[in-house]
Write a structure and sequence with these properties.
The protein is an alpha+beta fold. Helix content is 40%, strand content 14%. It is built from 15 helices and twelve strands. It has helices at 2-13, 23-41, 84-94, 100-111, 115-134, 149-154, 161-167, 191-194, 197-209, 244-255, 257-261, 267-278, 306-314, 359-367, 379-383; strands at residues 69-71, 78-80, 143-145, 170-176, 183-189, 216-217, 222-224, 283-289, 295-301, 324-327, 333-334, 350-357. The strands form three sheets. The protein has a six-stranded mixed β-sheet. Helix 3 (84-94) packs antiparallel against helix 4 and helix 4 packs antiparallel against helix 7. The longest helix is centred in the first third of the chain and has 20 residues, at 115-134. It is elongated.
Length: 389
């Protein structure tokens, strides 16, 4: 009876005339859509990311934000998404002239994307240096054979490792090997480097503790006067472009449509599909409306946590020690301690939030005969306030 009732509801919502009614027609429809998507995206074998277009001059004044931008942690330069990787590589390479050890460490952690492989290589290098530190008198630990299987499989395959060895005092030499006529290539630690074991230990700790150099998302913080356009968002293409890997994933998801359309979907299944839709977005633009109507705007990763939004708002407040709440549309409270991802809260690709002071704290302040300041944001932000168009 429950199944019959569910089927009746589905038939009311999805009339037969509007969609396929058999397994074969569903499969044919999905195949057509997959072929169309493959044609548009250049086929499932295409690699790389879509190039970020410059915002068009026509109508660009109405965009809520000109695009997604990043800040290079090494140079402080603001970059478009299509510029960031090349700029960071260039900045790291230019660092070799001033600090070759630090530059080689940055290269190892940043230029090699496979984090497991990087960890294995770094741990192996650390083992080499530990052996030298623990056995400074033994000459065999000061030499590393380049054709050694472990060296080839774990270290030689990583960018930046050779520069690191040379920067900390190893020299390439061709040396004789027992029972062989040909000379073999080795890294040999110089006497000068051996005489400074504390430096080797420091370089090892640097290598182990380093992280990839990644451009920081520019929040592009802006403050607007009260406006009836607060909930209107005109977003540039940066907020919607998908990488080739994401396109392939979407095609696989569409292929699952046969199974999804041919079974009764429970509430949990529908919610899972909604979450899958949310994952299509990489970035989101958020506005926070304050009691006086002013708006604070910033750009976030779609997978960032609510705590990042709370921190962003807190940094803009005059009284940053007072607890406050953020409400989504419909009055849903977004609790900082829950620390959900923004896309899990449905806050993508844009959303308008409402700010309010914590009600209990507000009561305490008023009970003490005081009132919270009518000016909520910091003076320097109010001085840079814009008109939302």
């Amino acid at each position: 009876m429950a199944a019959a009732a569910a089927l009746a509801r589905l038939e009311q919502k999805q009339p037969r005339a509007r969609g396929p009614t058999s397994q074969d027609s569903i499969r044919n429809q999905v195949r057509k859509e997959l072929r169309a998507e493959a044609t548009v995206s250049g086929g499932p074998e295409s690699t790389g990311t879509k190039e970020v277009p410059e915002p068009k001059e026509e109508g660009s004044t109405h965009l809520a934000v000109p695009g997604v931008y990043f800040i290079c942690p090494l140079t402080g330069v603001t970059l478009r998404r299509d510029q960031r990787d090349a700029h960071i590589k260039e900045a790291i390479l230019s660092h070799f002239s001033t600090d070759p050890v630090a530059a080689s460490i940055m290269k190892i952690h940043t230029f090699n994307r496979d984090r497991d492989r990087v960890k294995l290589g770094v741990d192996t290098i650390a083992k080499y240096l530990d052996n030298i530190h623990l056995h400074p008198e033994e000459e065999k630990y000061r030499k590393i054979k380049l054709q050694n299987k472990v060296f080839q499989e774990r270290i030689n395959c990583l960018e930046g490792t050779h520069e690191f060895f040379e920067a900390i005092g190893f020299q390439r030499m061709r040396l004789p090997v027992a029972d062989q006529e040909d000379l073999e290539e080795f890294y040999v630690l110089s006497e000068a480097a051996l005489a400074q074991p504390q430096s080797l230990e420091r370089h090892k700790e640097q290598l182990l503790g380093a992280e990839p150099v990644r451009a920081k998302l520019d929040r592009q913080r802006r403050v607007f006067r009260p406006s009836p356009l607060a909930s209107r968002f005109e977003l540039p293409g940066d907020f919607f472009n998908l990488t080739a890997e994401e396109i392939k994933r979407e095609q696989r998801l569409r292929a699952d449509a046969v199974e999804r359309l041919s079974v009764l979907r429970t509430k949990a299944m529908r919610e899972k599909e909604e979450q899958r839709e949310q994952r299509k977005h990489t970035y989101t633009l958020l506005r926070v409306r304050f009691p006086d109507g002013c708006l604070l705007q910033g750009t976030f990763y779609a997978r960032e946590r609510l705590s990042a939004v709370y921190q962003f708002v807190r940094e803009a407040l005059q009284s940053d020690w007072l607890p406050f709440e953020l409400l989504a549309s419909g009055g849903q409270k977004l609790l900082e301690e829950e620390n959900l991802a923004l896309n899990e809260c449905g806050l993508v690709p844009s959303a308008l939030l409402t700010f309010s002071w914590d009600a209990a704290v507000l009561e305490d302040i008023r009970a003490a005969g005081a009132e919270p300041s009518s000016s909520i944001l910091k003076p320097e932000l109010l001085a840079a306030m814009e008109k939302l168009s």
